[in-house]
Amino acid sequence: MELKDIIAFLEETPEVVRRLREGFEGDELRARADDGSFSLVEQVCHLRDSERDAYGARIEKILNEESPSLADVDGPALAAERRYNEQQFDVGLEEFSEARRRNASALRGLTDEQLERRGILEGTGEITLARLVSMMREHDAEHFRELKELRGQLLGRRSTEA
């Protein structure tokens, strides 16, 4: 997939997340999946912090440093530490959208040489900026799958409560 197509996919993610939460309010936004994984609020806060603290920082480091070390991010630990489920979905979504706009802007127009710049990602090893961008897309796709499953579970809970 070409960079412009990946960027278009990434730019669409906040809207996809917004659509997947439609119809849910209050306690449903904080209800976890059947397997105990993230609620809708936790999902959007995770995406926001991944975008800012992981991907944004990594893009900047790869573009500005020679073969930088890139820290891994422990999503569940951040969720607990930052108390994601006590935050507001709409605020998290807006902050995620803004961080994604900044990162997409930074990626747009990169040269082939810049895309081949490398960093060392903790737990993974050496990666190029191009690979990092692909990882962003894969991360989004995984969260789409989780959000769709959670949406189905939440709708199913409504029908059993009725």
Topology:
Elements: H1 3-21, H2 27-30, H3 40-64, E1 69-70, H4 75-81, H5 89-107, H6 112-115, E2 118-121, E3 125-128, H7 129-161
Parallel strand pairs: 1-2
Antiparallel strand pairs: 2-3
Helix pairs in contact: 1-5, 1-7, 3-5, 3-7
Distance between the termini: 45 Å
Strand content: 5-15%
Low-pLDDT runs: none
User: Order of SSEs, N→C?
Assistant: HHHEHHHEEH
Helix content: 55-70%
Spatial order of strands in the largest sheet: 1-2-3
Characterize the biggest β-sheet.
Answer: 3 strands, mixed
Structure description:
The chain has 162 residues and is mostly helical. It has a single domain, classed as dinb family like domain (Four Helix Bundle (Hemerythrin (Met), subunit A)), CATH 1.20.120. The chain contains seven helices and three strands; from the N terminus they run αααβαααββα. It has helices spanning 3-21, 27-30, 40-64, 75-81, 89-107, 112-115, 129-161; strands at residues 69-70, 118-121, 125-128. Strands 1-2-3 form a three-stranded mixed beta sheet. Strand 2 (118-121) and strand 3 (125-128) form a beta hairpin. The termini are far apart.
